[in-house]
UniProtKB/TrEMBL annotation:
Residues 121-303 form the HhH-GPD domain. It catalyses: Hydrolysis of alkylated DNA, releasing 3-methyladenine, 3-methylguanine, 7-methylguanine and 7-methyladenine. This is DNA-3-methyladenine glycosylase II. The keyword DNA repair applies. PANTHER family: DNA GLYCOSYLASE, DNA-3-METHYLADENINE GLYCOSYLASE. The keyword DNA repair applies. Keywords: DNA damage, DNA repair. Its EC number is 3.2.2.21. Coiled coil: none annotated. InterPro entries: Alkylbase_DNA_Glycosylase/TA, DNA_glycosylase, HhH-GPD_domain. SUPFAM superfamilies: DNA-glycosylase (SSF48150). It is an enzyme of class 3 (hydrolase).
Length: 303
């Protein structure tokens, strides 16, 4: 299927946020600039390939039992519902970034568990550790992806496990993957209520966040990470992120900030605060100089 989006769409900057580190078995960027993703639809698993055709058209190809659903959802996934018309950059730095990067869209997968599990894995550990855990668990417990193996990969991509499989992973396998008991309990408990959590994709942003945060161990940061990917929320600011407050503080105001100060300072962009973060990153705007303390590496497998 090929279509022309109603807004300019930069495929790489839009869909790239779904990648969970190098070697993510559910995501691959082809040498030709295409992007491959695996997912679970109501009809079954699917492998999806997104590509840019010329200057304005996008194309989707899909394989597997869920192929028809995945193809039909592609425009929404790639930001068809994202409307930046009400975004006011306010300051020249953002106005210039918005002008130079008109194709950055807030994507919307509609898949809660697909975004929630890796977000929980990223709680309170360095990102590389979380990505290692995600890769190990998906390779061990996921399903082989349908369709062709993308060029450059030695083996098939993987589809992330179902909620039922996440729920039944034994404690020693979490330990083996470097996941501590607190994060594994949070994932297992969320998997028990997967059907109720998936309903959040049809709710208002506030109600969706509230539904997610009913789960023990899921707070504002985790809910925002899900909202950025599953719900396409352009306002989902990841309050509580280890780096974000100081990044925005230095990028926009030239100083360190606490989370509370960041939330107050970002008020003029209410409704588009995540769009501001994404634009700054896409434009390569520098944040805090790398001289402060870093989150330590903790090997939970040694415990």
């Amino acid at each position: 299927m090929t279509w022309t989006p109603r807004h300019p769409t930069d495929l790489a900057r839009t869909v790239g946020v779904l990648r969970r580190g190098a070697g993510d078995p559910t995501f691959h960027r082809g040498a030709d600039g295409s992007f491959w993703r695996t997912t679970r639809t109501t009809s079954g698993v699917a492998t999806v390939r997104y590509s840019q055709v010329g200057a304005v058209e996008l194309r989707v190809q899909a394989w597997g039992p869920g192929a028809a659903d995945a193809a039909a959802e592609a425009p929404v996934v790639l930001g068809e519902g994202d409307d930046p018309a009400s975004f006011d950059p306010i300051i020249p730095l953002l106005a210039e970034a918005h002008r130079r990067i008109p194709g950055l869209r807030m994507l919307r997968t509609g898949r809660v568990i697909e975004s929630l599990v890796p977000a929980i894995l990223e709680q309170k550990v360095i990102t590389l550790q979380a990505h290692d855990s995600w890769r190990a668990l998906v390779h061990r417990f996921g399903d082989d992806a349908p369709g062709p193996v993308p060029s450059g990969l030695a083996r098939p991509m993987k589809v992330a496990p179902t909620a039922e499989v996440w729920r039944r992973i034994p404690s020693w396998e979490w330990h083996r993957a470097g996941v501590d008991p607190q994060r594994s309990r949070t994932i297992v408990n969320a998997a028990r209520y997967a059907a109720r959590l998936e309903e959040a994709s049809g709710m208002s942003p506030a109600d969706a966040a509230a539904r997610l945060m009913l789960m023990p161990g899921v707070g504002v940061w985790t809910a925002a990470e899900v909202a950025q990917r599953a719900f396409g929320d352009p306002d989902a600011l990841a309050v509580g992120d280890y780096h974000l407050a100081n990044y925005l503080g230095h990028a926009l105001w030239g100083r360190d900030m606490t989370d509370d100060e960041m939330v107050e300072a970002m008020a003029p962009w209410a409704g588009h605060r995540q769009r501001v973060v994404r634009l700054l990153g896409a434009a390569g705007v520098a944040g805090r100089p790398k001289r402060g303390p870093r989150m330590p590496f903790v090997d939970h497998r040694a415990r």
